[in-house]
Amino acid sequence: MHSSPLAAVGFGYWQPRVRLLLVPGGFFLLTVFLLPVAYFLAQGFHGFSRGAIQPGWTTATVEKFVTDPFYWGFVLNSFILGAAVTVITLLAAYPAALIMVHLCGTRLFWITAVAVFSPLLTSIIVRSYGWLFVLSDSGVVNWLLMTLGLSARPVRLIFNWTGTIVAMVHIEMPFMLFPILSVLMQLPKDVKESAQDLGANAFQCWARVVLPLSLPGVLAGCQVVFTTSISAFASPTILGGGRVRVLPVAIYSNIQGLNWPLGAVESLMLLALSLLLVTVFTRLMRTRGLWAGGGR
């Protein structure tokens, strides 16, 4: 069992002096985040009638959300969007990470890294509007399709699920690529060489050695991408055109309509869904021995 240098000198995390260091940050988090969130979520236990929040506590709004299939459609759409973006991003990010590992130490590696991670310097709203122009009827994609003779007329790529998913895959790509790349770059080269010496071909080496060892990065990336995708607002609003009806869009609509109780219940459902997904991914990593690099 290894101990850190700080633990060796008695600098434990639960020492009284250490706990005092948590007071300023804890107070800031409590007053700026936790209390406002708790106050807003408490609005879900009020009624709403004639454009005003009704005094007194009631579970009518919660019961309305739980019993009406219309509202569960928002939950299902959010889950579908998160799953689609996660799967497509993983299928694109994993091969890209493998290629970048082979390019490690070269100038091309840094060029690729800048190309992949530089969009993080740009606002999500700006990138969403960029995709709106690229995928529009007169955009680059439709121009290319008609120039190559693949389509006689513009293909509808915006104000639907297609444009939303394309934009969100681009936005979420760095969050999937980085954890996978960091794990792959830490894999010892002699592990793959040993597998090849034992007769494994390239596919067997990847399937039986590289893939299992890279699962911590894969699961970490999936967790981040899924949870951020189901809570995305800008791309579904800009590129969905009101046709991609997910929970964040519904929350915004209800808050704009001053229906805070229903918006609070929807926010509570989104928070519960996010916490559930984080718990599932964390439990999966622990049960498979992948937590904190245990997979290696």
List the helices and strands and how they pair.
Blueprint: H1 5-8, H2 16-42, E1 47-49, E2 52-54, H3 60-67, H4 69-102, H5 107-117, H6 124-134, H7 140-147, H8 161-185, H9 189-197, H10 202-230, H11 234-238, H12 247-256, H13 260-287
Antiparallel strand pairs: 1-2
Helix pairs in contact: 4-8, 4-10, 6-8, 8-10, 9-10, 10-13, 12-13
Name given to the CATH homologous superfamily: MetI-like
**Based on DSSP secondary structure assignment, what is the total number of beta strands?**
2
Beta-strand content bin: under 5%
Q: How many domains would you count in the coordinates?
A: 1
Can you tell me the CATH topology?
Answer: MetI-like fold
Which spans have pLDDT < 50 for at least 5 consecutive residues?
292-296
C-alpha Rg, in Å? 24 Å
Ends: how far apart? 17 Å
Q: What is the topology, as strand order, of the major beta sheet?
A: 1-2
CATH architecture: Orthogonal Bundle
The top-level CATH class is: Mainly Alpha
Main sheet: strands, sense, barrel:
2 strands, antiparallel
Helix-and-strand structural type: mainly alpha
Rough shape? Answer: globular
Level of helix content? over 70%
Written description of the protein model:
It is a single chain. The chain has a two-stranded antiparallel sheet. The protein is built from 13 helices and 2 strands, in the order H-H-E-E-H-H-H-H-H-H-H-H-H-H-H. It has one domain (58-293): Orthogonal Bundle (MetI-like fold). The chain is globular, with a radius of gyration of 24 Å. Helix 8 packs across helix 10 and helix 12 packs antiparallel against helix 13. With 296 residues, it is mainly α. The model is unreliable at 292-296 (pLDDT under 50). The two termini are 17 Å apart. The protein is 71% helix and 2% strand.
